[in-house]
Amino acid sequence: MLRFRFILVAAALLTAAPVIAGAQGAAAPAAKSSSSGKLTAVPFRAGTILSAEISRQKPSFDVESEFDKPAIDNPAWIELIVKLDNGRSLSRFDYELIGQEGNYTCFAVAEGADGYSVDPDKWIIKKPHQLKYYRLLFPVKQSEINAARNGLLPVTLKMKLYDTTLAPAQLQVRVMPEGQSFTRVSSIRPEGLCNMTYQEAFQSGR
Fold it and tell me: Cα(first)–Cα(last) distance of the chain, in Å?
């Protein structure tokens, strides 16, 4: 089974490689700031990060497998909601997240409000829609929540498979209140909610 999984991963990487490699020299998108001066939409290599949250609540999965599980036992979860630039693709193999307590590989990606899945057909989003948002999920150590300060956790999103001249994206992840899951995609504003605490994003009368 491990050998079969390795073959599937290798095939997925080879499928994603031409799209990723062909976009090495593209310029980063413009950043957006709130009235308070916070960078609420953070450019990254394939588009723009509009929201970043950490929660102890496991998000919904349509398909799970005992042979494809997070490397971390009892993880917390970080979810990024992004808008992709025209011509870009997204896969679970593209990025890693550098937190305060370790480095973390993306575990799953999803379109819009769809549930996450470890089905190999869902590992790569080859033809994203310009009007839709996409989600990246990272299992992380529970201790990352304790490393947050004033409701925000500094992280870096780094390209995993290929070298690029663009700097990694640096941002702060919003700590969700205890017992609360991630914000619905439909609640994410076009100007973004990055680098904002839960109170700033949802309880400040914005």
Answer: 51
C-alpha distance from residue 141 to each of 42, 78, 153, 171 (Å): 24, 10, 13, 18
Domain ranges of the chain: 2-202
Which of 105, 76, 61 has its CA nearest to residue 176? 76
pLDDT tens for the chain, residues 1 to 206: 434 443 444 444 444 443 333 333 344 445 565 555 789 999 999 999 999 999 999 999 999 999 999 999 999 999 999 999 998 999 999 999 999 999 999 999 999 999 999 999 999 998 899 899 999 999 999 999 999 999 999 999 999 876 667 789 999 999 999 999 999 999 999 999 999 999 999 976 55
Q: Quick one: DSSP state of residue 201?
A: H
pTM (two decimals): 0.83
The amino acid at 157: L
Identify the CA nearest to 158 among candidates 96, 82, 113: 96
What is d(CA 22, CA 185) in angstroms, rounded to the nearest whole number? 29
Question: What is the C-alpha to C-alpha distance for residues 30 and 173, in angstroms, rounded to an integer?
Answer: 20
